[in-house]
Design a protein that fits this description.
mainly beta, Neuraminidase, 2 domains, six-stranded antiparallel β-sheet, 1 helix, 32 strands, globular, Glycosyl hydrolase, WD40/YVTN_repeat-like_dom_sf
Length: 371
Amino acid sequence: MKALALAIICLLPVIGNTQVEKSGPWEMQSSGTTASLRGIHAVGGGVAWASGTNGTVLRTEDSGYMWQSCAMPPGAEKLDFRGIWAWDANTAIVMSSGPGDQSRLYKTTDGCSHWTLLYTNPDKDGFWDAIQFTERGRGILLGDPVAIRGADGKNDLALTIMKTLDGGTTWMRDLATEGSVRVADGTGAFAASNSSVAIFKDRVWVGTGGKSGAHVYIGKFARPIPLMMLDWSGPLPGSELSRYVPLPLASGTDASSGVFSLSFRDDQHGMAVGGDYTKPNESAGTAAWTADGGQHWTAAEKPPHGYRSAVAWDLDVRAWIAAGTNGSDISYDDGKSWQPLDNGNWNALSLPWIVGPKGRIAKLGALPPHK
């Protein structure tokens, strides 16, 4: 007994001095994987899901104390799961990104013990970029432009826009409709963080980049009977401005620059981040904000300290947080100015979590004071 008591006493200082590894305010967690993680979705109540390369899907039910490695979806050994959306601890959809049939959707309803293949990209030249839902089960799947037949009989380029009204079980395509999103040659979307599309109530925003420049396309869920459709045509309500809006972000020189992430805290106030991922330390043209639903955008006066692939609104502290491959930043003034949080390597955000390459997962801790 004395030996046991002495051993316990000897251990106490070690336990007391144990510290959580941090990167700025981010408290590092053990993911149990070395996969590159680009998908993360915080459900609430301590539940979150993450996804990445080589068919990797992770789940936590205890606020990240333990991350469970999920069963791999069938045939997903070489797939890159860049997007994930979950409703609770049992139900989630994971999206892989890749050329042609390497872009797929799988769904689980039993806590990731089993997966069902929902949909495989039918376009051999297609590439899926993001999947987002509203609280009512309406969702959008965004993909790179593919050729479609125009009214003049010639081929046009249009973003791949698919919608669901039943939580992702079935999907409808908008490619053949007059309201589909035609784009210029050299336009593309980015699958960096599953956030190149944003939804708030009935409004939808899609961010693009590439040689044609940085743009946001604004649409809405219209309600013709019997189906709820997406309307991208015509001017914005109460405005003569087109739904095709340029942004003051780094773009236009090559396919590596443009809008990488969009987020809206309400139907008027939103944030766009991006830049050029081949120039991670270049701060110019990495963030812009809007206060009128995306009709006009203003570049940050003091931008983040590098390219940013993800942005999210922190309701608790009423601030925006952005992250990328050379670190993260925070803005307390709705995107006008940003201050650095850390210099870590990150891909995607779903607060309070952040993920990156080589299995990096962290949870947001105490934030620095507003300067």
